[in-house]
């Protein structure tokens, strides 16, 4: 097995990271807090999703730099034009 990651490895890593972040956010509290027992900060849903998004974007940016000929792992949303209702 080679030491370098392939495009499929980056794609799998991005999906796995997104899924793990979603699962963590489902169990996270709405507001961040502090655990006196553990002595650490408890991240909120927003904290977990921000960290997940940052990690997925970093993975996708690395894949884009290493594999410019492959399709982007995440695409920006296209702007939708409003239609006239008659």
Question: How would you describe this protein?
Answer:
- The protein is mostly helical and 86 residues long.
- It has a domain at 7-66.
- The chain is built from two helices and two strands; from the N terminus they run αββα.
- The protein has a two-stranded antiparallel ribbon.
- α1 runs antiparallel to α2 (45-66).
- The longest helix is centred in the middle third of the chain and has 22 residues, at 45-66.
- The N and C termini lie far apart (61 Å).
- The model has no long low-confidence stretch (mean pLDDT 87).
What is shown here, in short?
By secondary structure, the chain is mainly alpha-helical. The protein has 2 helices and 2 strands, in the order H-E-E-H. It has a domain at 7-66.
Lay out the secondary structure.
Elements: H1 7-27, E1 33-35, E2 40-42, H2 45-66
Antiparallel strand pairs: 1-2
Number of helices: 2
Please give the number of β-strands.
2
Rg is 18 Å
Percent of residues in β-strands: 5-15%
Termini gap: 61 Å
For the biggest sheet, the summary is: 2 strands, antiparallel
Helix-strand sequence: HEEH
Principal-axis shape? flat
Average pLDDT reading: 87
Q: Order the strands across the largest sheet as they lie in space.
A: 1-2
Overall SS class: mainly alpha
Please estimate the helix content: 40-55%
Instruction: Provide the low-confidence segments as ranges.
Output: none
Features:
mainly alpha; two-stranded antiparallel sheet; 2 helices; 7% strand
């Amino acid at each position: 097995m080679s030491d370098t990651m392939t495009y499929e490895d980056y794609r799998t890593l991005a999906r796995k990271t997104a899924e793990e972040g979603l699962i963590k956010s489902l169990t996270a509290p709405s507001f961040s807090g502090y655990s006196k027992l553990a002595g650490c900060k408890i991240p909120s849903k927003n904290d977990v999703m921000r960290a997940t998004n940052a990690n997925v974007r970093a993975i996708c940016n690395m894949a884009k730099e290493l594999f410019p000929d492959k399709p982007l792992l995440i695409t920006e949303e296209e702007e939708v034009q409003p239609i006239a209702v008659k």
